[in-house]
Amino acid sequence: MALTERVPIQKVMDEMPFWVVPKDQNKTASYLSQSCCYFAKGSSTNGLATMHSHTRTDTDAMSPHTSDARGDTKRISSHRGKNERDKNEPPQTSVDRIWTRFSKREFSQVVNVIPSDSDPGALNICPSNKLLHDDYARAASKCRRKVEKIVNECKRVNMRYRDPTWDLDWDLKLEKGDCLNGLCEEKYDLSAVSLSSSEDKVPKAVKRVHEIFEQPTFMERIQGGDITQGNLSDCWLMTGLVALANIPAAVKRTCVSYNTTVGVYGFVFYRDGEWMYSIIDDKLYLKSPCWDSPSTQRDLLEQVGQDGTEKLYRKTYQTGSKSLFFARCRDQNETWVPLIEKAYAKAHGDYSSLAGGWTGEGLEDLTGGVTTELATSDILDTDLFWHREMSKVNQDFLFGASTGYLENGKGERDGIVEAHAYIVLEARSLKGGQRLVKLRNPWGDARRGIWEGPWSDGSKEWTREVQDELGHKFGADSSFWISYDDLMSKFSLLDRTRLFQDPDWWCCQRWVSVDVPWKASFQERFRIKVTQSSPLVVVVSQLDRRYFRGLHGQYSFRLHFRLHSQDSPDADSFIARSHGNYLMNRSVSVDIPDISPGTYLVHLKVTGERDHSAKSIEEVIRQECLERVEKDKLIQVGHAYNLAHGKASLHLNKVAKLRQDKSSEKASEARRRERRRQWAKRRARRYATKKQKKKNLEKGRRRGLEPEPAVPNGQRSGVGEVGLEGRSHFIQTGGAIEADSNAKSSGSTVPNEGLEMSSNSDKVSVEDLHSSQHIALQKLSLQCASEKEGKPPSVVDGVAGRSPSQLRRKWAWSRRQEASSSQIRPRQSVGESHGARSLYRAGDGVQFLHDAVEDSSDSPVDDWEALYSSDDMTHEPRDDDIGKPSGAAAHPRQRGQRWRRLSESSSDDLCGSDEEESSDPWNAVCTVGIRVYSKDRDLVLLTVEDGILLEEVRTKRSV
């Protein structure tokens, strides 16, 4: 057919087939014009068919997507059934299906990254209440013993200590970078180009302390102004060291044992509620390469042509603190800053793990304290805050001050640098009543980031008397004084770290694994029993992801909790709630100065966020196993992951035991209900069989003397008539049958096959009577139940005791039974029937023969002993096992129906895959710990799961 004239676009759109989605007419018109679809005048139908085929071909050839008005791509689905289902189903059903696909019913978590047989085991968290000093003493004592063994070994073989698990020297020479870079990152490129470059982007050499420093000292001169940051963005750690340097004893407390001659140092840090030790050697990274390696500095010195060029090179570029690549002291011979940074980096696995952080978190790891973010505008009584907390700086508290973080500030406010942390060194009340606070800028520069307002260096407020009273000298270092009122107005955030220096502080802790739904809510997780009045500090924290960076997954969490009294557990009657750490999300806390004895409930809420751009743990492990030649880094990070998540292993075992008990109880209850239902059904069937048998016998006796008519082919129609007439009469009068519910029958059960007979004269099939029989059985079952309870049966819609919804379900069951009967059993005559029961005429009437396998007791328990055992977890037994002969024909039918249901559901999923393409379901699990600090030695901390105390669940801890 010749295409001679272009048809208007609107007409084509009006006749457009169902699989085209014209959301935007302009774009659809453009699409149709590009597909070159022309129609002959007067033949729109054929032309439409031609356009249909051409457009379909173009769509398949070009792209399976089209664009909507917003520019987003939309897949054009040609599956009509799926589209019709979406149109016909209610909106709530669609929403429910989306949530079903989006969220898993049972959340799961990766607990062991490395196989458990190679993992050293989880930390031994003691669940009982213990003194804080004892916990530190245990870790320090273990560290000292290990250092002592290393020293004895090295002296025995006359060798300096070389750390075999964290050797900086060989790691750099082999260009592996495991001590520098994390698992899935390469912050420091150890390529030949980078190592030969003159820029300080990567370390170039590794030397021991005695090779770098001329007269090395260790912790002989501890000052806050002596700390200098290196080529790593760990200013948060350096700021914490500046604050800790105000208490020299606290700095020395971190290093419990060392030997400078052998070159071994042992430090302790606080990690996830427990003190841990880190033992290192004395090797440090340098900025400049060794003399034997090619470098620009060597070439310049060689051009001078002086004697002793090598010594000059080492003196200039590889001697003193100035030659170190990472953190250092201003004193050219002091070594405590680079060594404590190295020990902290080893504890985390590498140096790059220290990049980025918060000062409060660093102080917690160095002191074992508890840090809380305080907004200065939220403090109710500033005078009370001064007397209780600020005036006790360096005694019970450490403070950091900052501003501009929440305002995205990048400038200065009267000399104060925004988005930068300052350390509170001292708080003093002058004789004249002025309250002053001394702060330090960790940069160490006396000309940058210094307060320029009242009480700044050189301001008019300073007098000789005040200067002598405070002992302040202008321009001495990066410290300055500011009034307390200006501090509260110029700084928006205070990081308060509580120090537990008193020897009578006790701590009790628990670790649990919490499923985090997409919409979180408060739930009771812990109970605290206080026996005496005491100050109380409650800390809820999650695992420090810095220790296993690279295996943290896609989810991040925030914690919230409320403290309730057991006497008033209402949601609105809490005693206190956690302070929101908006910048630090590792932990939240509540500090109560004094709490009365009693039982308190901790309601916890964990909210989660998902980063789809991040890799899941499974993807990281798969990639690392395929790409990495060396497996040491994966093993190191994997062990740290197992160590952290092993804290909640005991809780996971108890929860698994609790859920197993609940599942067993639920299954037992389901089995009991099913046994009762099946027993009532069999009892009703026995009543119906006895009644029918009695009627058949009476009718047989009445017709016993009548001669039988001739039946062709040797068939006996009289027996079929008797059965059919009796059954028809039974169905019509079934509603009036009465039976004694207390009488126990010892007769035999008559199966359905005994009634499924056909007569050539009446041409009545067994399947036509199946539904009526089932309705009669329902009536009898109801009647039996009513007699047992002493209540008359109710009548709804003409059927006793059944609601319309129940009748619909039962009628659907009858239709399925009718369909299955027609598929499995062919219609047989009485003479050809192979049922369990047959009729024969003898002397005084009709007698029944039956199999003994169908005998049934009245007891609902005895009948099910053979089907259920104590360890059987079946919820829904098969009806074919009760009251029916087992046959091979029934099982293929059930399997076929099940296969059809599965295939229908899978086809629906395939049809909906085009429109419901989404990522993996929401599966967030957070490991949460709680620590309760008090001066009550008898305090008890319990864990709660679904209102049940897990301490009452007995289970063995898995190895």
TrEMBL record:
Compositionally biased residues, Acidic residues: 854-865
Q: Where is this region: Disordered?
A: 50-95, 659-722, 738-761, 785-835, 853-921
Answer whether the UniProt record assigns the keyword Protease to this protein.
Answer: yes
Please list the residue ranges annotated as the Calpain catalytic domain. 207-500
The record, for InterPro entries, names: Calpain_cysteine_protease (IPR022684), Papain-like_cys_pep_sf (IPR038765), Peptidase_C2_calpain_cat (IPR001300)
Among Gene3D superfamilies, the record links this protein to:
Cysteine proteinases
Active site, renumbered: C235, H420, N441
Keyword set includes Electron transport: no
SMART domains membership: CysPc
Which stretches does UniProt call biased (Basic and acidic residues)? 67-89, 659-672, 695-706, 872-883
Give me the stretches of Basic residues compositional bias. 673-694
Record keywords: Hydrolase, Protease, Thiol protease
Any single GO molecular-function term of the entry would be: calcium-dependent cysteine-type endopeptidase activity
Residue spans of biased composition, Polar residues class? 742-761
User: Per UniProt, what is one Pfam family of this protein?
Assistant: Peptidase_C2
Q: Which BP terms in the Gene Ontology apply to this protein?
A: proteolysis
**Identification of the protein by name:** Calpain catalytic domain-containing protein
> What's the source species for this entry?
Fusarium duplospermum
